[in-house]
Amino acid sequence: MVAPVNGAINLISLGLLLWGLSYQAHPSLTGPASHLAGLALTVAATAGWLGWFYTRFRPGAQTLHLASLIVMALAGGALAAFAPLAVTYPGVAALGATATWPLGRVAVIVAGGPLSTLVAGTAGGQKLTAVVICIAATLAGTVMGISRRDAQERSARAAAVELAQGRTELLAARNHLARELHDVLAHTLSAASLQLEALDALLRRSGEPEPAVDDQLQRIKRL
Prior knowledge:
This protein is mostly helical. It has seven helices and no strands. Helix content is 82%, strand content 0%. The longest helix has 77 residues, at 129-205.
């Protein structure tokens, strides 16, 4: 139930972001080539978002997962130089990366968004305000991702401890049951042995038992 709800929220958030980008002014994106570049960056960043969403819970898709986050961070960062709302892409990329892997392993994703904004903004003659906003969004995503990963690790450790405690209790119960069965069996066999001794004595008192009966009785006593 949790996964479908999270998926719906994720897709709704992406839809709202695209809706906001479609209405946001792009004063520096003038001319067909600039509009085409802006559209290409939007498509690439959105594809990265969808790729990250599709692969994040799929085993064996780590390479595609990382590639999707890198594309989302770089394309979204470049788009953020002209559309400030696009800083959401590198922020989400940083969150998704640090929620799964240690910061050192995904530093290129965390730093990629602001660097891409800086390069695109410098090429387009933009102010550094977009870079500062992108850095803030990326840091926020990084903090949220690290917190989420730590919470998941704590939950996993707590589950492992609970499982170990359950196994310990099960083993103790099994050992206790084994001791009880051993005691009951030992008492029963002791009583049976005494009764066989009494039966042997009774048979010999009444006369020499038949060889077949005596042989069977001795065999049962040995068992």
